[in-house]
Amino acid sequence: VKIRQIYTSFTENKSCRLECMNKNYQQMFNILEKYLKDRVQDIDLTILEAVEQRKNGKSFSFEEHLRGFVYAQLSALVSWKKIKDNQTILDEIFCNFDRQQLKEKSAEDLINEITAIKCHNPYTTKNQMRSLKANIETFERIEQDFGTLEKFITHSTPSNIIKLLADSNSTYKIKYMGVPIACEYVRNVGIDIIKPDVHIKRIASADRLNLVTAKSDYKIIDEFQELSKQIGINQAKMDYLLWNYCSKGYGEVCTATPKCNECVIRKYCQK
Prior knowledge:
Blueprint: H1 2-23, H2 25-39, H3 46-55, H4 62-74, H5 80-85, H6 87-93, H7 99-104, H8 107-116, H9 125-130, H10 132-146, H11 149-153, H12 158-166, H13 179-188, H14 198-204, H15 217-231, H16 235-246
Helix pairs in contact: 2-16, 4-13, 12-13, 14-16
């Protein structure tokens, strides 16, 4: 039975590798990169730059972690273009991410100031801001237990770190942080990981590009990690290219109702 399991695993991995080679996903991502460069203006490179900075040895401060977390939360169900256009104002609203000042600031003031610049979501922002002080205190507890937030987010695999932050049974569970938001936070401080949000899951599914077969967020993360190894493109870049190809205000091609006639990678698609 053990030999059969090993053989099955080997043949499945071999099949996946052959499929990747046959489809030449590396070429597909190159096509996407050229398309976005030629057609889409003002693409945000922040995460790609953060991943490169970490690769080159940068260590992120507590304030940078706090900023990455806050922006990850704000991005939930709010147009990123709107958030990006108001970053200078948002930095001021959040006291330039000074933890002490931010813990002392009224949640209602935060809600009102975010709402005034239309960077709020009526379903999530209030709960996020009312939990911010408690979440900062959880980050401080992590800092106390691990020495720094940097040591915490690098002490295990990215997938395990996401579980510690997002799982409801975790000692370090952050309130109002699911798997996609946890991924966005660690990506903001340079961790190379995919963010399994609605755009990525839709375009990568078996019905479209068939990049992954998994349904659960954690398994999607694992499959993209394996794909990254196979084709030599980091996960943050794959996410950047796919997300910008799909998202409103950017590529807007592979949306819920895809514009298949305009698609430059349709030969790779199952649809």
